[in-house]
Amino acid sequence: MSYKRLFTRALEAAPHRLHFAAHSHHLWPDASFEGQVQAWNDAALLADHKWDKVFAEVIPEAQRHIARELALPDPDTIAFSPNTHDFLVRIVSAMPMDRPRVLASDGEFHSFRRQSLRWAETGRIELTTVPLGQLVETAEEGTFDLIFTSQVQFNSGRFLEGIERLAALARPEGPWVVVDGYHGFMAMPTDLAEVADRVFYLSGGYKYAMAGEGVCFLHAPPGFGPRPEITGWYAAFDDLAARQGGVGYAPDGRRFLGSTFDASGLYRFNAVQRMLKAEGLTTAAISAHCDALKARFLAADPLPGMALISQPQARFLAFQGTRAPELYAALGAKGVVTDLRGDVLRIGFALYQDAANVDALIALI
What we know:
Elements: H1 8-13, E1 18-19, H2 30-46, H3 50-70, E2 78-81, H4 84-94, E3 101-105, H5 110-122, E4 126-130, H6 132-141, E5 146-150, H7 163-169, E6 176-180, E7 199-204, E8 216-219, H8 264-279, H9 283-299, E9 307-308, E10 316-320, H10 324-333, E11 336-337, E12 339-341, E13 344-348, H11 355-364
Parallel strand pairs: 1-11, 3-4, 3-5, 5-6, 6-7
Antiparallel strand pairs: 2-8, 7-8, 9-10, 10-13, 12-13
Helix pairs in contact: 2-8, 3-8, 9-11
């Protein structure tokens, strides 16, 4: 079945492009355009009072969509920010010790890797990294204050197993467990109901949520980090009109909010979520569509001599080999968008592709 009708604007903008990098920059569905227009219209109509609508309607709707997707018991545990790096900085600033002992996998995305390495240089944190497959056991045997790991690793597509075991370690006084779900959220069904009271979870709309940049979120478990040191004025938005005394914080996930941001990403996110609901497209249904495309591609064995290192849960295929850079460049010259990480070629699948697109990709390879 084809869902190209949901992506007419993006597909018609570059009709000769074969986009197989949905794991990197997911093409935007038409519904996102409608959300963007609504954000502009609200700003024009409401001006200063647009924030009343954003906080009273737009944010609560987005929180409900995310809570439903992740089986979170309380949507109010969710905060929003333009990027996940903001949340990383606020989480570390909220920890109740001066020099947290941090454990992470050795395959984290640049936003964590760069910042954690710099913190380690300055002595702000003590950093230990291990392969993803060793992370849970190391966490259980070691003494750490913060455990940070991806749900699905961005470079290899390897999947975290044992989140329940990590959650069992978590305490408000430490350790804290933070799961980067950017390659898991809406790429695979995710149920956090049993760990929501102990685990932080962060992700965003840039990839599988199909909403573009600027709409990242954090689920913050109650009681963990009640007063982040790095804080913006929206963290006490309800009290702005009240007399100020000291630094107050919202009692829920809003305690991790920053300051003024572009709300259009939230409008796009909500519009896409409503579109998916109207179409009956759950994450499981989207994954089934993409899995069929992946299977079709793999059945052709188009990349002999390259090792498939991604796990089945990933929405993309990661092939490792010395040919990867040359193949990436050659495909790009033919109008095929893939993705390269060192010697790993990543090929991502999405709703806007069909069997004919996969066959065209195979033929070009």
